[in-house]
Amino acid sequence: MTGHRLAVLGAGAVGGSVVELAADYGHEVVAFADSSSAAVDPDGIDEAGALDRKERADAVGDGDPADALAADYDVLVEATPTTLGDAEPGYSHVEAALSRDRDVVLANKGPVAERFADVRALERDSAGDLLFEATVGGAIPVLATLADYGPRNVSAARGILNGTANFILSRMTAEGLGYEHVLAEAQDLGVAEADPAFDVQGTDAALKCVILANVLSEARADDPAEAREFQLTDATVEGIEDIPGSALELASESGRTVRLVGEATPEGVRVGPRLVPPGSSLAVSGTRNLVQFEHEHCGQLNLSGRGAGGPETAAAVLADVGRLS
Questions:
Q1: How many beta carbons lie within 10 A of that of residue 91, not counting itself?
Q2: What is the DSSP string of 17-45?
């Protein structure tokens, strides 16, 4: 396989891990940018030096981020933080790359969760391709499996799609502890952010389900340009913040547990706490994620693994890069 020249936008855990691991997958990073600086070299940047500088000085190089976007690369890796509403600046980065007929690989959920029809239209007008495995389920090959088995044959995708929420519910159930206590523990362990709202309110899981719903809807449309588009505002979402410990105790007494379950179908998206039998594949514990497909010919397919993390998500990004011709 001939390696690709990558421009990586975003220097957080995922973007940094892509830069660190790219050479292991046979690729070369020619541009790397955070929100205020960039390192660009057509012969390949000093990956270790850029990452070290980011840690020491909060800058990856002496250039401007626009220099990275304008660099001579084969594939743009968009790993900036997910933003809601207009999906900026991620959407504009995608637009700029596709307008130059470059390929794009997304780790940023925003463009495909909030502007799916727009990015697909950009892709149709470009010689470049858009892939986004890393936006759903971290290291789990959710979209690749869906593509291989035919999304037109899948009536529903559901699962445990947020490790933070699953860790909290698992600990509350196992130890009989209250929400605030377990949340503080999760924050101490680095499992939950200082502001955990994105995870515990169900937003993160809902965005992933919106992406899945868009893929399922597009597959069923005779003309993909006419497919129904889903956005976060179309989803019914309930988080875990208001689940009392007594509800988990009652669930345990009846031999069940409570999990934050997301479901995507060609008709819509739902995310919320659900009672789950202990023998169910949805009863995964800790930070593990699980995605379950209802397939017309195969029945139920289950995929499980690490749904977040820098190296894990970077592996999904680099798998997408490897799929590009």
A1: 21
A2: HHHHHGGGGT-EEEEEE-SS-EEE-TT--
Q: Which residue is associated with the tokens 């470049």?
A: 128
Would the CATH topology of 5-139+312-323 be identical to that of 143-306?
Answer: no
Answer yes or no: 54 catalytic: no
- Is the confidence at residue 280, as pLDDT, over 80? yes
Confidence bin at 325 (pLDDT 50/70/90) = confident
Contact 319, 142 (CB under 8 A): no
DSSP-assigned beta bridge partners for residue 243: none
Phi, psi of 295 (to 5 degrees): -110, 135
Q: Look at the alpha carbons of 323, 309, 93, 38 in this order and tell me if their dihedral is positive or negative.
A: negative
Q: For residue 58, how many other CB atoms are within 10 A of its CB?
A: 12
Determine which one of 4, 158, 208, 274 is catalytic. 208
Give residue limits of the domains in the chain. 5-139+312-323, 143-306
Digit-coded pLDDT (tens) for 54-70: 999 999 999 999 999 99
State phi, psi for 300 to the nearest 5 degrees: -95, 125
Q: Which residues contact 292 (CB under 8 A, 6 or more apart)?
A: 157, 158, 159, 281, 282, 300, 301, 302, 303
Over the stretch 101-117, which tens digit does the pLDDT of each residue have?
Answer: 999 999 999 999 999 99
Determine the topology of domain 143-306 in CATH.
Answer: Dihydrodipicolinate Reductase; domain 2 (3.30.360)
The shares of helix, strand and coil residues in the chain, as percent rounded to the nearest 5, are 45, 20, 35
Assigned superfamily of 5-139+312-323: NAD(P)-binding Rossmann-like Domain (3.40.50.720)
Tell me: pLDDT of 1 over 70.
no
What pLDDT does residue 22 have?
A: 98
Which residues, other chains included, contact 102 with Cβ-Cβ below 8 Å and sequence gap of 6+?
Answer: 73, 74, 75, 76, 128
- In tens, the pLDDT along 152-203 reads 999 999 999 999 999 999 999 888 888 999 999 999 998 998 999 999 999 9
